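Complex 153.
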Amino acid sequence: MMNRSRIEYCNFSWNPVTGCRHSCPYCYAAKQAKRLSGDVRVNKGSNQLRKDENGLYILDNPFRNQSGKVIPDPVGFEPVMHRYRLEMPAQKKKPANIFVCSMADLFGVWVPDSWIDTSEPARHGAHFEEGRKNNDFKDFKKREEYHGKQECF
Ligand code: SF4
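Predicted structure with iron/sulfur cluster bound:
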């Protein structure tokens, strides 16, 4: 399930990737991730997390602590691919404006192309009645070289 967004032009936020390495001192998302991380040192030892060939974290299922509570950001603001979130846009019953990666820079230099390529088809999974608006995805690209090359809101 996607989180409802408080941003006026978005209905939901969708975070198949979380984390960012820009380390902006004013970052709200980093503070949120820290608040929702639980014990990062303990979490990193869990076999729920695995690493890809780049040494980046992958979660195939929601991370749960020892009490069974879901921990959204078990490694704080380090980059994570949440594979179990990929199907979420396709599960929407009605078209929506979806903020992509409010808790990450999806196009940061550390993000492998495979993560971006994996999240792209997930955007096209929902099929609504012919003639109805489809989901609208809002991407916010923070790297200058992307600006002007791809749609940027
Ligand atoms: S998510 Fe945005 S504000 Fe936060 S560290 Fe990355 S670029 Fe900076």
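The first helix runs from residue 28 to 35.
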